[in-house]
Amino acid sequence: MKLNLTSATAALKAVTGRLAHFPSARCVCLLLLPLLFSQAHALLRENSSQNVLHRPAVTPSANTGELQLRLRALDAAKATDDPAAIANASRSVAALALRQFAELQQASGKEAHAAETYRRSLDFEDVPGAHLDLALAYLEAGHTDKALSQATDVLVAEPQNAQAWRVQGQVWMAKGNYGQAVTSLRKSATLQGSPETTRLLRIALAAAGMKANAQPKEDSGVMMGFSRKTPPAEWQARERRLAKIVGSALNDQGAAEARQQQFSLALAHFHEAEQWAASTPGLMRNIGMAASRTGDYAEAVRALRPVVAADREDNVARSMLGMALFATGSYDEAARTLAPFGDSLLKQPELMYAWAESLVKLNRYPEAAALLEKLERQPLTTSTQMLLAQAWSEMGNYPRTVAVCRRVLEADPKLAQAHYLAGLALIHEDRPTEAAAEFRAELQQDASDAEAEYHLAFVLFQLSQEPEAMRLLHDVLARNPDHPDANYELGKALLNAGKTAEAIPYLEAASRLKPGLDAVHYQLQSAYRTVGRKTDAEREANIYRAMKAKSRNISLPAPRQEQGAPPQSQ
Q1: Which run of H or of E encompasses 212?
Q2: CATH fold of 376-552, please?
């Protein structure tokens, strides 16, 4: 059957556009926005040109003023309700918070982690100072080539950057190339003298006169400006505060991106925010909604379950969770999640359908039928009406299925699949002549529809129009040799016509493609017996008998035909 769960899910996705509301932000007077941004940019320029690279005691930066200024600028951007402004301001906050977090990692001796954090900060704000921070982190971690590359890249862009020359000199010293170190450090001292640059230059000059494999007497760490100390307790507290800031900023950025319909990018930033601070207010809700919009329904379920559990009055989250559960086949939970809405879902037909169809999947037909009857009385799109027709078909209410299909066709005579679904229902109603007309009408709209062609052949056999039916089946198999039902019906028809040798390959293909169909084993044993293949015939007969015995011992729910498959005869 072509109108399946995938089709239903696709129809449901439309409603998410009406539900994807992301938390609004804190408000700050709009008049402050230009001033805050100008101050932030001024500090940024200052930081880029005067980044302090030497850390005698590797003490993390105590400069929280700039970060607070950026946070206020983010609040002001939120007050404008401008997604682009919010995204830019949140990136600015995340970048600086990441750099400050990396400083703490570096000071604690976690150079590799610090380097990765610095690298991530550059994705949000590419400034020379961050590159030089990354160079020092690489240097401390022993990755001198990477450190040299970072420092050199800054110098290519800013040849007059004294700090970049000094970092390059430190890297050359670590690599044992003191002549190059002297050149770089002299350039730094010329551009901007400092006691630390002078100290490093003196060490490099002394080392340059030694043998190539000699090392300066001073400890290399001290020589390059590094030292270690045990992180005080306040550093850990600051790490926690910075992690929360990063998580919150990434959440704000993702929310802004989601409002700009950039759901995949938003979801990536929400997930990153979760790694930093999973308890960020509104984060799990945002993850769930963005995941729904990207079709990741399993992730939407993971995120939205705790949201709905914590706030049972959050109807938007409940709606999204119900749809995600339906899309992932969790029908019982989907029904329980959507049930509290009651008749209010009549205003959202896609959700009402998801509730009703979940009940159908659970074989709770009376409850499902009651919902569908209410829904039918509402003004519905043709797509939703087709979903209702399919639900009636699944429950075995074929007259209702035909009625809905014909009502839809009155509104849109060329609606795809309406004739097809009506034809399937008419087969079950034992009305082959009407079913044939429906399938012919479907093929007039799409002559390449193999399923409509197969089912037309099926009813033509019932109408004793074997030549046309066999021609149609040959056509289906020419385009799709692995169509199991077409192989079976053609093999059975050939067998009935006395063309056993021709029938066997088709029946064998059907047995291979659909081994759970007991009728194919029955026909195959008969064909084998006719041509004298007794061993093969007995094997197929045993399979058939075992399958029939097993089916007699199974307690079945109310009858429900597999979608798209007509009853098979032996």
Answers
A1: none
A2: 1.25.40
